[in-house]
Amino acid sequence: MKENCVVELFSEGRWAEVASVSLLGKQEAGWKAGTFCGYAAEWAMAHPGARDAWALSSSFPVSLEPLELPHWPVFLIDMLPQGYGRRELLRRLNRAETQDLAGDWPLLLAGAGNPIGHLRIKEAAAWLARQKGPQQGFTDDEVALRSEEFIEYLSGHGLFVAGSSGVQGEWPKVLLTRCSDGLLYLDHTLPDAQAVAHFIVKFGRGPNPALASILRNEAPYMELARFLRLRVHASLRLVRQALFIPRFDRFVENGIVVRLAQESIATLTGKVGFEQLPTHNEVCRRLAAVATNPLEEVLEYLKRDVANLALGNKDNHARNTAVQRCFDGHIALTPLYDFAPMYMHPDGIARCIRWEGKDGSAPDWNQVVDAVAEDCRLDRTALAQELKAMVAPLRELPMYAPTVGVEERVVTYLTPSIIGMAEALAKL
């Protein structure tokens, strides 16, 4: 098994080899193997000290000093396929699910060739190129209906190719790019020069009506977030049982595709694996330390937690929030994503990330604001005033929600928690 890999970073219209990662010593389960990671000398000398998009991670600034760890660098774990994509890729590789390194390192070398963000693993990109096959475009309806031709095409490529790399979660997803001819192509098969827009397309999963309802309400939920003045990207579009989600880690400028850095809050806070979780307080401290505008970003993070609690989005794990790093030095939270009525999930989902000692059945927002202001050295009055400004739109939300398509039973269920949240914030 190959025990090293090359990390490539996309900038100025090309992929550059910027770093390498090697496994060290005892190879324990999964990402617990020791690693040695270092920037290429030329890259280190060209971008010394950078923590923005020129770096692999905000926690690993560009330098000649290597990073030696008893585990994988967390930014690599962000690039691993998870959920449905992981299962599909393991099937393609003829590997059973395992907690052993044999299941994770080869997964990286095959599955991280086209992740979200601006990084990729060179060996995985080469493997992906060998799977490319013929290029074929599809209409939006053919994709949404999962036409026989589209499904056969995905099967030929392997759904893992289209939807595994860095796209996490249990719903089947594919990365599709709209070409100048108006058709949608698997993202990795379309040259950047022909790209017009980029999408993650999330498909309905199984016959369970609760899962179908979650998917139907995700686009309206994003409009609720916009109403609450959260940071929201372009509107989502549901076509039958397919949700078209415009990507914000890429954009086309003057005919050129620009890829932006994206790292999860797991990477931001250095949490290895999927069982480790930061507290909200840890996230706020790290955000304040790296963000271009600490007050703005910490407030955005606080407001998202308010919205998650009020609207029953319990699935707040460490890869459902991310930080975006631009090449001009700007570091901020990405637009909101994976915002949906997850309280409906048939498996029951508990709130993952909580406030230290202040979360109980509901956070005490005065105590939260006190702690955040002190820990992050931010103005308490500004934090409290901005959160209190959410009271009016929260009170209006039950009337507004049906106008953007939130289902009646969802509105009925959530109204008490929405009003309760407004009352809690009014006491700040």
What would you say this structure looks like, in words?
Strand 9 (237-239) and strand 10 form a beta hairpin. Helix content is 39%, strand content 18%. It folds into 3 domains: 4-128, no CATH class; 132-253, no CATH class; 262-426, Orthogonal Bundle (Phosphatidylinositol 3-kinase Catalytic Subunit, Chain A, Domain 5), CATH 1.10.1070. The protein has helices spanning 41-46, 74-79, 83-92, 101-111, 122-130, 140-144, 148-157, 159-163, 209-227, 265-269, 280-290, 294-311, 365-376, 380-388, 391-400, 408-426; strands spanning 4-11, 14-24, 34-39, 67-69, 119-121, 173-179, 184-186, 195-203, 237-239, 242-246, 250-253, 256-259, 261-264, 322-325, 331-333. Helix 12 runs parallel beside helix 14 (380-388) and helix 12 (294-311) crosses helix 16 (408-426). The protein starts with a strand and ends with a helix. The longest helix has 19 residues, at 209-227. It is of the alpha+beta class. It is built from 16 helices and 15 strands. The protein is globular and about 55 Å long. Mean pLDDT is 89; it is low at 160-166. The strands form 4 sheets. It has a 5-stranded antiparallel sheet with strand order 4-3-2-1-5. Strands 7-6-8-10-9 form a 5-stranded antiparallel sheet.
Features of the shown structure:
428 residues; alpha+beta; Phosphatidylinositol 3-kinase Catalytic Subunit, Chain A, Domain 5; 3 domains; five-stranded antiparallel β-sheet
